[in-house]
Amino acid sequence: MSTMRLLLIEDNERLGGLIRDGLTKDGLAVDWQQTLEDGEATLEAAAFDLVLLDLGLPDGDGLDLIRRLRRACDTIPILVLTARGGLSDRITGLDAGADDYLVKPFDITELSARCRALLRRPVQGLTPVLSVGKLTFDTSTRQAAYDDTLIELSRREAGLLEVLMRRAGAVLTKQALEEAVYDFNEPVTPNAVEVAISRLRRRLDDAGVKDLLHNVRGIGYMLKAKRG
Amino acid sequence: MKRGSIFGRLALGLIVVGLVGAVVLLVFVAFEYGLSFGAGPGSLTFGEVMNEVGDHVVVPLLVLMLPLAFAVPWVIQTSLRPLKDAAAQIELAQTADRGFRVNADDFPAEALGFAEAVNGLLGRLDETASRQEAFAADVAHELRTPLAILALELERLDGETAARLKRDVTNMSRLVEQLLVLAQLDAQAAARVPTQDVALADVAASIVSHFAPLAMDEEKEIALEAGDGATVSGRPEVISAALRNLVENALRVTPPHGTVTVLVGPGAILRVRDGGPGMSHQALKDYRQRLHRGDHSSRSGAGLGLAIVSRIMEAHGGTLRTDPDRTELVLEFGRSA
Hints:
The complex is a heterodimer of chains A (228) and B (337).
Chain A: E1 5-9, H1 13-25, E2 29-33, H2 36-45, E3 50-54, E4 56-57, E5 60-61, H3 62-71, E6 78-82, H4 89-96, E7 100-103, H5 108-118, E8 129-132, E9 135-138, E10 143-146, E11 149-151, H6 155-166, E12 171-173, H7 174-182, H8 192-206, E13 213-216, E14 220-223
Parallel strand pairs in A: 1-2, 1-3, 3-6, 6-7
Antiparallel strand pairs in A: 4-5, 8-9, 9-10, 10-11, 12-14, 13-14
Helix pairs in contact in A: 6-8
Chain B: H1 6-39, H2 46-92, H3 109-155, H4 160-190, E1 196-199, H5 200-217, E2 221-226, E3 231-234, H6 236-253, E4 259-264, E5 269-273, H7 281-293, H8 302-315, E6 319-323, E7 328-332
Parallel strand pairs in B: 2-4
Antiparallel strand pairs in B: 1-3, 4-5, 5-7, 6-7
Helix pairs in contact in B: 1-2, 2-3, 3-4, 4-8, 5-6, 6-8, 7-8
């Protein structure tokens, strides 16, 4: 199973417990601290892949911790959990160096998805298979399968699918997808993303994958399973 | 009522002083001559005396007073100029951002008291605004943390009741968010915080991205049509809140398989087109009045939202309009916030 380790710093007893239980069930290893001081000490003592940080802590503001870490050139991904969304600290959190934020209340599915999206480096032992519904993608062999049947994909299509599956349930802009297809040694034409997407869609259709890859007009694309 | 002016009083005062002085001088001289032509043997006639007085007193007096008549207004104007400058400085406080204080370094001693009084007042406004924001932040924290707990606990449950309660939690979260925006607008009205340049196309893109998964779950489509990228001066989170409210409304009134389109431009305009019947001018007016009347009862939940959007637009020098024929609600921003 996964050994993606994350540090949760949240002072509320019940909320902290619920988040830890929820994420543990999702296959993440969660270390939970309730104060800024304990959190910082834990960060120094062990290696983590991600920090989940509440801003209003009894012994200080979480923003200070972000600033201290970033000043020390620590690039560990930080996901801010804030109760003050709608106020300006949503912005200040990102300014201070946080990678993403989530406004309370949120659901575990969303939190878990955001955590996985922030995982920037491959983590040893992390389950390498991404899945959305019955569609799976093995990041080590770079093979996609639907209902255990392999889907033939070119390198560019596989790259696109991986990016989309990593951020499943969220919209990816054309620019973001362009970066994903840019890595390969093929020339990128202005409509490279559209072309690659339509090929990918055809491959998925052929494999029987319906209603998974969606176009959000004017923005980009989203991979998302229908609810229920 | 006629307003007294310092200039008028000084000018009048100096005129009176000059006239009284001239009269006193004339009387004094006349008295002196009177004494002399009564006593001496080589007495002068009355006419001769008048001539003497004219040559040696009245003419010099006129020579002195004519330039004075021109010089006095100039002297008064010049001495009053620091007061005018001070007033202009204080006037700046009207539109300045939070933390502004009148700089009294160049003030004359007489105007220092005003500067201090204005600065005291500005300080109190700033304090009120920050206290309001701190209060809103506290309330948000106190309400949202239990809501988060509630939402996570409910997630562990299945069934119709749990689903209904989840929707309640979502609605309550929205309400908290709207109250926060309101508190922020009130604080902003008391003392402005610095604004920044906000690209409307960016705001629109982030809101559409945010709502796309939600729309899909409800079998509706949401799309963005970004024209030219106008930039307005304001607070990005507040402008986002306005657009979010409109998109939420639009999704609510759009039937399944319908489309909500967010359009940017032309100019500093955001439009939200929905698949509903369109909102009449009267209905929008009623919604807008709601906040002012303090009537927060709303079956659709649209009332408070639209009233807040209206307030946000006012704060940005713009308006919220409806275009029933195109089933659009339009956010039209002013030139600057």
